[in-house]
Amino acid sequence: MKKIGLLFAVLLMNSYYGQKQVRAATIGFMNVENLWDTIQSADYIDGTKDFSNPAFHRSVPLDSLKYLPVTEENYMGVWNNESLKGKKVVRKQGGSHEFTPKSSKNYTYEIYQKKLANSAKVISEMGAQYTKTAPTIAGLIEVENRQVVEDLIKQPALARYDYGIVHFNSFDYRGIDVALIYQKRRFSPSKSYKREVVVYGSSGKREYTRDILVVVGYLDNERVAFLMNHWPSRRGGEVASAPKRNASAKALREEMEKILAQDANTKIFAMGDFNDDPVNKSMLNHLGAAESKEKVTPEKPFVNLMYPLFKKGVASLAYQDAPNLFDQIIVTPNLIQKGVSKEYSIWKTEVFAPKYLINKEGNYKGYPFRSWVGDTFTGGYSDHFPAFVVIQREN
């Protein structure tokens, strides 16, 4: 039945192409589940540089720190751009030591190359059954630094698409970030920056999480914006950790509203791992992501494309043995219309779960075929299924 549905969708797309010369693009993202290189690293912040300069905050090998000047050996202040202006300091990465050949994971160069190849394969195939090409835009979640993204886009499955990269290091306690890759021939970024997300633990102490990556530009000459997210996890319990995701939702909404205040016609895609479902308060109330365009109100000005899938029982992961749809794509209502017009609109939304991404046996049968179980590398792909949309317009 699933194959019949896919065949019908492809035939429908082909009929559009035949009648109106439709142009299409896939926009999606993947949680690459701990994509680290094999070198133990730290963050080096050179506050004498401009925030937009990649040298302001970069990931460097531990053994290179002895060659870099430091103004405060044991910096105890707030970790954000403004507080670090003029300073040269080092921030340890909480997770880097786990991913080296000498760690308990025995994370070798061969495993790293397998991770890259696996991730590249998945990304290249998202939406390809409809567009016959790799995604025009692909978000990445859980990357260590820019270098691993550069290594990723050089993989044979992706290299021919000539991807550009947008990435900023965050102050996440583990040392993982989000990033965006884009086909240069179709998307031209005009502005990119990171939005700090300020959250606190139950003790009232500041906890450092991933920033929201904001990229504004032109996709085939249409003004669009992409906001990549990886909100705080449910560690400590769903209810106890909810304020962190609520704060993330408010920060995301502020950025989306700022973009629309500058140009109300901008088409916005906010996507990522939200660590909440479409029905949670963070998504519905604080972000204002309605279940459909018909349900949009001033309080809920955006549309969660995953809401209908969630209601059908579609999941992108299993958290604590319960199915969840944490991986979501939220858009502005101007992306939703009937038929094909001269501007891009949503044609299809999917959680990407081909057979090879699904665990076939054992206690986790039916779950995403993750790459790590404890310290053991399984040869798998990710603990999340990716998600994507196909947009289309008259050519």
UniProtKB/TrEMBL annotation:
<protein>
    <recommendedName>
        <fullName>Endonuclease/exonuclease/phosphatase domain-containing protein</fullName>
    </recommendedName>
</protein>
<dbReference type="InterPro" id="IPR005135">
    <property type="entry name" value="Endo/exonuclease/phosphatase"/>
</dbReference>
<dbReference type="GO" id="GO:0003824">
    <property type="term" value="F:catalytic activity"/>
</dbReference>
<dbReference type="InterPro" id="IPR036691">
    <property type="entry name" value="Endo/exonu/phosph_ase_sf"/>
</dbReference>
<feature type="domain" description="Endonuclease/exonuclease/phosphatase">
    <location>
        <begin position="97"/>
        <end position="393"/>
    </location>
</feature>
<dbReference type="Pfam" id="PF19580">
    <property type="entry name" value="Exo_endo_phos_3"/>
</dbReference>
